[in-house]
Amino acid sequence: MHLKVTEAAKAALRSMAEQGSSYSPGPNAASELVALGFAESNGQGGVRITADGRKFLRDIDAGVQF
Asked: Which of 32, 37, 44, 53 could anchor a disulfide with 9, C-beta 3.0 to 4.6 Å?
């Protein structure tokens, strides 16, 4: 499986996982993560990480190449 995910989006996803609701990615990273299904609207103008986003981070940590 090959996903094209920018480094900025990967970094934003990791920050979202680590910092929770206190972190808000920039609009470009947020749009990319939502399009990939790794984030969703939090109903307050921001985004939150999804289960797929957390799995993607675990896969990266396990050495899966995308």
From this structure: 32
Distance CA 43, CA 41 (A): 5
pTM for the full model? 0.84
How far is it, in rounded angstroms, from Cα 62 to Cα 40?
Answer: 24
Radius of gyration for the chain, computed over Cα atoms and rounded to the nearest angstrom:
11
* 54 alpha carbon, distance to own chain's centre: 8
SS (H, E, C) 4-48: CCCHHHHHHHHHHHHHHHHCCCCHHHHHHHHHHCCEEECCCCCEE
Q: Look-up: residue for tokens 């609701």?
A: 21
DSSP label of 49: E
Whether the pLDDT of residue 31 is over 80: the answer is yes
